[in-house]
Design goal:
Elements (H helix, E strand, L loop, with lengths): L1 H27 L2 H27 L6 H56 L7 H35 L6 H12 L1 H11 L3 H28 L12 H7 L8 H4 L8 H38 L2
Helix pairs in contact: 2-3, 3-7, 3-10, 4-6, 4-10, 5-10, 7-8, 8-10
Amino acid sequence: MGSRKKSLRKLKRRIKEKAYTAGRAWKEAGPALRITAKVMWPLGVALAALGILGDLNGWWTDRSFLTNLLSSLTGVLFGIPFALIVLQQVAAHQAEQMERTVFKRLARREFSSITEALDRLYVRDDESRLQQLEDLLKNGIRALQSHAEDADDEPRRRHDRGGGDVARDSIEDRVRSVARFDEALTLWKAVIEDQEKCDRLWESALRTARYIDDHIGPRYLELDIPWVPAADRGGLSSTLERWPAFNWFNDLESLRFNTGTEHEAFTTALNAYDAALEALQRIELARNVAVKWLGYIRADD
């Protein structure tokens, strides 16, 4: 009894699916095709009824050609609209599949262009040098924080000792020495491309990410193609919108023209190192997000 009910439910579900498919096919048929079907099908029904009536009354006994002609015309009136609707559905399905393929290729190409642009920010992808640079910046930040705090009390200590102001060049030299600035800058330029090229590549990646958000993503969803999970959508462009400070070292290189206190000089250097470290981390974050999104797209192949 249970298996029979299950079979009936399956049959009802299939009938509903077929009815839905037929209804959709009729709705998607063009106006001209629907008008043609509305004219030809009633004529086919009328000819079929005439043929059956003729058979019952023996009208066609000696008229074989007319019988064949009437039968053929009846089949044409039923078959042509039906065939056109089916062919239209097949053509629409093929066009949709083609569009899905085209958009998949487009998405892969655009995501690949982002990862390539971000990869080109590096002079060469050297993990050991990157790690060395990151460690140097972190150590510099700790040293600068400590010296900035000490510099708060330095004017009072010099006053108690009867000392004068420290020359600007000695402040600059001290800051650069504590931060190991020359070493950090040399390593940065050995790992990261020049500012102009980095800005150009970052802008290209951001422009592509916005194009994906505005055009490719919505069309993917319309075509019912698996897309980036909802929680991650927009994450790439929002990551790229925060521009890394590729020119962080300018503040340190112009430190000698700073007329502020020693504490302000150390704070300036500290902010510059913070910006440099954040730039490295933001580049890596953007690369990881782009690679993750590209993985979503390739997983559907």
